[in-house]
Specification:
Keywords: Membrane, Transmembrane, Transmembrane helix. It comes from Martelella mangrovi. With about 290 residues, the chain is of the alpha+beta class. The protein has a domain at about 15-55 and about 140-285. About 50% of the residues lie in helices and about 20% in strands. The protein has eight helices and seven strands, in the order αβαββββααβααααβ. Strands 1-2-3-4-5 form a five-stranded antiparallel β-sheet. Strands 6-7 form a two-stranded antiparallel sheet. A hairpin with a 6-residue loop joins β3 (about 100-115) and β4 (about 120-130). The protein is elongated. The mean pLDDT is about 80.
Length: about 290
């Protein structure tokens, strides 16, 4: 009689494959979502100023000539005066380029000074969006935040629909991965459609919750309709840091949750994440 004890077979972790699949899926969805947003601005031109890409964009800034563009004179005219002698004010012209979307241009004025007691450097800045004629425009931040939230909320649904109708997402296809309720079956069956959708939203719920809470915080912030209002709000924000602290705490909490939700399970569950365990699913290699 053998003294060896049978050990139940368990699927491998496949951490690097799953990470690569997630990155590929994110890139594919980012391109698709940016294209859709760009098409939306063509259909509804009124959204052009308020909509930006949430995924692929570049921001470049260059020093601006304050005497050429009147918006800089308007900003500095309303800028709150400071008694500090070491205050420095700089002006920059920034452009944001996105795939399939019109270029955005911003007039940015920043102030930096050293604290009197601890010597720390304090900075504050105002960004004013410009139109084609270099005149200031003030699109509703609600539009941009709404589009950004919708793009994130639609990401899990896009992955689920690709899995339901195609049998794979681009990342899982390239990495030869398959989601199944039976990891040891000779031909692993696919997850039912309902569990497929639930799994994707369970996977990304920390990011979705973070985005929705930031959306609620943004709704409570002042909305400028003129250069004077934007500069006045800057002075108010300098004395009320509650919103900034709330977002920093929220982001730190989200990183902790993501570590527990995405990273830590690989030390315990082979082939399964916490959300996989909730719906009894496994990620295995395709035959």
């Amino acid at each position: 009689m053998s003294d060896q004890t049978a050990v139940p077979q368990r699927p491998p972790r496949l951490f690097l494959r799953r990470l690569a699949a997630l990155i590929i899926d994110f890139l594919a969805y980012g391109i698709l979502a940016t294209f859709v947003v760009g098409a939306l601005t063509m259909v509804v031109p009124q959204l052009k100023d308020g909509v930006a890409s949430s995924f692929f964009y570049t921001r470049t800034c260059t020093p601006a000539d304050r005497d050429v563009m009147p918006v800089f004179a308007a900003i500095e005219r309303d800028w709150p005066k400071s008694d500090a002698n070491d205050t420095k004010i700089s002006a920059r012209l920034c452009s944001i380029d996105s795939f399939f979307l019109p270029q955005k241009r911003l007039a940015v004025v920043s102030e930096s000074r050293e604290g009197e007691e601890d010597g720390a450097t304090f900075t504050r800045s105002v960004s004013i969006q410009l139109d084609e004629n270099d005149d200031p425009v003030f699109p509703s931040p609600f539009i941009e935040r709404s589009v950004s939230s919708l793009q994130l909320i639609a990401f899990p649904l896009a992955l689920a629909l690709a899995t339901i109708f195609l049998g794979w997402t681009p990342g899982k296809r390239l990495m030869s991965l398959h989601v199944t309720p039976d990891a040891l079956a000779k031909v692993p069956p696919p997850l039912p459609p309902g569990k497929t959708v639930l799994r994707e939203y369970l996977k990304f719920w920390p990011l979705i919750a973070n985005n929705l809470i930031q959306f609620a915080i943004a709704l409570g912030t002042p909305k400028a309709s003129s250069v004077a209002e934007a500069v006045a709000w800057l002075e108010t924000a300098g004395t009320d840091q509650r919103a900034i602290v709330d977002i920093l705490v929220l982001n730190a909490a989200t990183l902790l949750v993501l570590f527990v939700w995405w990273v830590w399970p690989f030390a315990l569950w082979r082939g399964r994440m916490l959300y996989d365990g909730f719906i009894r699913a496994y990620v295995v290699l395709r035959n």
